[in-house]
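Much of the work behind modern protein science is quiet bookkeeping, done one molecule at a time. The fold becomes a row of whole numbers, each drawn from a learned catalogue of backbone shapes. The protein below has been through that process, and both of its lines are reproduced in full.
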Amino acid sequence: MPSLILLMIAGAAGYAFWNSSRAAAEAASHYSRKACQEAQVQWLDHSVHATAIRPCRLDNGWLGFQRTYRFEYSRDGADRYAGRIVLRGEQLIQLAGPTRPTPTLVFPESQLPPSQP
């Protein structure tokens, strides 16, 4: 009888870990898709890949996991860049990847030609 109870506890713990892993992967997909849309780049493969997991203390004091995910994006369709997302639980901790395009000046403001009236 005790072995059945231990088996049930192990099964419940395995299911809880799998369920939290799926929720974190969905959150990572959401954050990477949103970052690519804001940076006006292509989110390649429409997926994220888990690269690391480690135990950590969550903000509420409970023990949880910090997961690192990798995703790929392209600026013009011919190149590939890798981005990285770090989640603590389902909370975004770090995003390294596409950034918003910023306009650049051809001339510094001090060297702009005078405007014509």
User: Anything to note?
Assistant: The radius of gyration is 22 Å.
